[in-house]
Design a protein that fits this description.
Layout (H helix, E strand, L loop, with lengths): L1 H15 L15 E5 L3 E7 L8 E6 L2 E8 L18 E8 L10 E5 L2 E7 L14
């Protein structure tokens, strides 16, 4: 029974782990951080192994959608892989923000495997100082 149990553990690990043996589609969702200042949001996403041409950013109203494709590395002849965990394929992440974004001034930069997107709040969403009479 021990041998059967070990074989079953290997089989289950291969099914459910990212980059397993292909029994389930390999997918990934890059990690991101979202921070807020008075006038803007900043979204930072880790997307290693990709180029800027492989990433698309769409902003509409109060949503930001980031899609991309990490290309699969071709298996080299004469090389035996003992573990394959790095995922490849297409991803899509949509983030809903608490207010609308000034779409015309959104800026994105891809440096050192980090995608940084500056999302300025629309004028009506920015805080306004109210003067007090008296």
């Amino acid at each position: 029974f021990t041998a059967i149990r070990q074989e079953m553990n290997v089989w289950l690990t291969n099914i459910w782990s990212p980059g397993g043996n292909g029994m389930l589609p390999s997918s990934f969702a890059p990690a991101l951080d979202l921070s807020e200042k008075d006038n803007c949001f900043e979204l930072r996403m880790d997307v290693p192994g990709m180029e800027s041409k492989d990433i698309d950013v769409q902003v509409h109203g109060n949503t930001v959608t980031i899609t991309g494709t990490r290309r699969e590395e071709k298996e080299e002849k004469g090389k035996t892989f003992h573990r394959v965990e790095r995922s490849s394929g297409r991803f899509s992440r949509t983030v809903t923000l608490p207010c609308n974004i000034a779409e015309s001034v959104v800026a994105a930069e891809y440096t050192n495997v980090v995608l940084s997107i500056l999302l300025p709040k629309s004028e009506d969403a920015r805080p306004k100082k109210v003067s007090i009479k008296g």
